[in-house]
Amino acid sequence: MPKMKTHKGASKRFSQTGTGKLMHRHTRRAHSMISKSPGQKRRLYSESVLYAGKNKSVGRQLPYGVD
Fold first, then answer.
1. Whole-structure pTM over 0.85, yes or no?
2. What's the sign of the alpha-carbon dihedral 52, 37, 35, 47?
3. Measuring CA to CA, which of 24, 39, 46, 65 is 20 to 30 A from 30?
4. CA distance 23 to 50
5. Distance (Å) of CA 56 to CA 40, 41, 43, 59
6. Are strands 22-24 and 48-49 parallel, antiparallel or unpaired?
7. C-alpha distances in angstroms, 17 versus 1, 29, 37?
8. Distances (CA, A) of 29 to 38, 39, 45, 46, 59
9. Helix boundaries (H) for the chain
10. Architecture of the 8-61 domain
11. Spatial distance between the Cα atoms of 59 and 31, rounded to a whole number of angstroms
């Protein structure tokens, strides 16, 4: 059986914690920041845990974990 390939786009967008959870950056950070409230911008700073419904599909793209 050949080795499975890692989806390189997914490996650049997701990181893995020590316990195996997948983290991702928030969306809506690229532009139009002037119209967002300071509180909303502050909440978008940090990474967040990927929700459970997406874990299966992203996990298929990262067969050996995040590089």
1. no
2. negative
3. 65
4. 5
5. 29, 29, 26, 5
6. antiparallel
7. 29, 22, 30
8. 12, 13, 9, 11, 25
9. 8-13, 38-43, 52-61
10. Irregular (4.10)
11. 29
